[in-house]
Amino acid sequence: MGEAPEIQLQILAEDNKLDAERQTNGSMGQSTTVRRQRTYKWWLLMTIYTFFLLAGQSVATLLGRLYYDKGGNSKWLATFVQVAGFPILIPLYYLSSYKSANSNITTNPPSVLVLSGMYSGLGLLLAADCLLYSVGLLYLPVSTYSLICASQLAFNALFSFFLNSQKFTPFIINSLVLLTISSTLLIFQNESTGSTQVSKGKYVIGFVCTVAASAGYGLMLSLTQLCFQKILKKETFKVVLDMIIYQSLAATLLILVGLFASGEWESLGKEMEGFKLGKSLYVNVLVWIAVGWQVFSIGAVGLILEASSLFSNVISTLGLPVVPVFAMVFFHDPMSGIKVISMVLAVWGFVSYVYQHYLDERKSETGKV
């Protein structure tokens, strides 16, 4: 009879153990389901942001070249339309603000002084960057311009190393070297045919401005990621729109000062009159350039928020080889041997970086198991 209580206690212990295992397995299954749902949602967002970035970049770059080819000659106006399209985002901004107000997430926001300084600084860098890009696109064929822009990935990786603690691996170093060589090759040619005809001196100016703009863009992406991490500390669509709208507003005001100070505004009427496609298409081209760059901004900043500044730049680099193909078809830009080699090296560098990202993902998944 003395053994009966011990047997009952053993049975109860085994039953409790089984219940605990069922509960643990259930919570693990639920956690796995939640993680999968988050993964699916993340990939959906990444797909949408990637489409916005690639579509906006391609359309805006090609229309920017069309503006110059058909009679446009104002560098400041070409710079202005790159940032002045932000008002089209205001309806989305108020919609995201309404959703944020109904959420239960509360955080201590940064002070107005800190936010003003952050957006003003990024706006100043954006304005300078857009002006350099405009000069580069004025003096270079669109295909050459796009391939040189691939160097922005190398600059972004360098700045990310210091500002965002980006780690360098053999594949990333290989990617940076290939992209650097890809851009450097293009300075050894001078194209006198195609969508633009310029002297060797102007070609060099266009090359230097585009490389400088690529460096500035790489720095701006790294600073944007740093601001998300250290100042804003949020991961919402409203934060993405805040970043785009306020820095674009600051950049627009600075560019307007440059437009009026340079005196180029006085010749805009004559420029519209002499535009080869007519006044209506002159306005339409400028409007759709502005829309294209805002769509690009949503994709670029969204990818920074969801992944990193370097990943956003890699996706941007992915779209660069597409532009020379369209430029050859629509603007009859020549596809020289140097350009082909440059394009192959750019794609090779991109694939090298993507493979490193794939290895990181596999390592992360293995660590979770």
Describe the structure.
The protein is mainly alpha-helical and 369 residues long. 80% of the residues lie in helices and 0% in strands. The protein contains 14 helices and no strands. Helix 2 (75-83) packs across helix 4. It is found in: Membrane. Keywords: Membrane, Transmembrane, Transmembrane helix, Transport. GO terms for molecular function: purine nucleobase transmembrane transporter activity; purine nucleoside transmembrane transporter activity. The chain crosses the membrane at residues 42-64, 76-96, 117-139, 145-164, 171-188, 203-228, 240-261, 281-303, 310-331, 337-355.
The residue ranges in which pLDDT falls below 50 over 5 or more consecutive positions are 1-5, 24-37
Total strands: 0
User: How helical, in percent, are the residues?
Assistant: over 70%
Strand content: under 5%
Secondary structure category: mainly alpha
**What is the number of helical segments per DSSP (H or I, 4+ residues)?**
14
Separation, N- and C-terminal Cα atoms: 48 Å
Radius of gyration: 26 Å
Shape: globular
Question: Order of SSEs, N→C?
Answer: HHHHHHHHHHHHHH
Q: In terms of quaternary structure, what is this? A: single chain
- Main beta-sheet strand count, sense and barrel state: none
Calculate the mean pLDDT score and round it.
Answer: 81
